[in-house]
Amino acid sequence: MGVEKTNVHSLNAKPLVVAVSSRALFDLGESHKVFEEMGMAEYARYQRELENVVLEPGHAFSLVRKLLALNAHRDLHPGVEIILLSRNSADTGLRIFNSIEHYGLDIERAVFTNGERPFRYLVSFNADLYLSANAEDVRKALEAGLAAATIVPHTRHEKDGKQLRIAFDGDAVLFSDEAERIYQEQGLEAFSESERKAANTPLSGGPFMSFLLALHKIQSAYPVEDNPIRTALVTARSAPAHKRVILTLRHWGIRIDEALFLGGKPKGQFLKAFGADIFFDDQQVHCESARDHVSTGHVPHGITNE
């Protein structure tokens, strides 16, 4: 095994903490429509009347279930904790907890803010990742230095198999947007020349670097050949700009299982072939390409989102 049990269960070890909004975990489309069209009082009545009617899974449901399944091997690693964040009140949120119980999801901690933004509790929970349907909450979380993504609406994709597969874009997601800025401001030729000169200089970490590191700690507790987690880098970069990316990951001590350098080709079909449970990208154009094939999280970070 890649990680000694004594290291995993040291005093400094903590679980991978993923915070998810109720609208990302469950399909609250009809409920939200009632709130927007009829107001809080009618929404509260609606939720109380239906509190024993189980909610349908949302866009992040499959991901959450696979993350929680990793806790079957808590003897090997610190495990995963899912935190529910909701703008419901505790009263209207009872339907959400009833649905959590129905699906057998091991979620014990929750915050109900009755309309207030819940992201401010992320730091207190020491969250590694925040998934939400609210783009402004996601932006605030990113500004606070946390990995966060807006779940992109799409037809829900239920992936077969038990293995958790997560795909990441590179620039402005795993890495800083320092190279992307050169490309956006000066063009492809300047970008290629800059990357050639800086090939041996590691890129700075982006908003998802810490999440990938935490995920890698769990992944490293298992054999490479029989691992419940598989990761992929899916980037618009091409040769020779690939070298700096590879050396950066090596510098961080992180193994990415698959790396796709697509040279600008649409990412959707490649993500479908990889079988991603979720894909994170900073650019809307790539999220649009991905959403028809896999669950997608938009990371509103970097120069393309300014």
Overall pLDDT: 91
The end-to-end distance, rounded to whole angstroms, is 43 Å
Uncertain regions spanning at least 5 consecutive residues: 1-11
Helix content: 25-40%
The CATH topology annotation of the largest domain reads as Rossmann fold
The CATH architecture category of the largest domain equals: 3-Layer(aba) Sandwich
DSSP strand count: 10
Question: Taking strands numbered 1, 2, ... along the chain, how are they ordered across the largest sheet?
Answer: 3-2-1-4-5-10-9-6-7-8
Major sheet size, sense and barrel closure? 10 strands, mixed
Rg computed from alpha carbons, rounded to a whole number of angstroms: 20 Å
Question: What count of domains describes the coordinates?
Answer: 2
What letter string, H or E per element, gives the SSE order? HEHHHHEHEEHEEHHHEHEHEHE
Q: Helix/strand-derived class?
A: alpha/beta
Characterise the protein shown here:
There is one protein chain. This protein has 306 residues and is α/β, with parallel strands linked by helices. The chain folds into two domains: 146 residues, 3-Layer(aba) Sandwich (Rossmann fold), CATH 3.40.50.1000; 142 residues, HAD superfamily/HAD-like (Rossmann fold, 3-Layer(aba) Sandwich). The protein contains 13 helices and ten strands. It has a ten-stranded mixed beta sheet with strand order 3-2-1-4-5-10-9-6-7-8. Helix 11 links the parallel strand 7 and strand 8. The chain starts with a helix and ends in an 8-residue tail after the last strand. The N terminus is likely disordered.
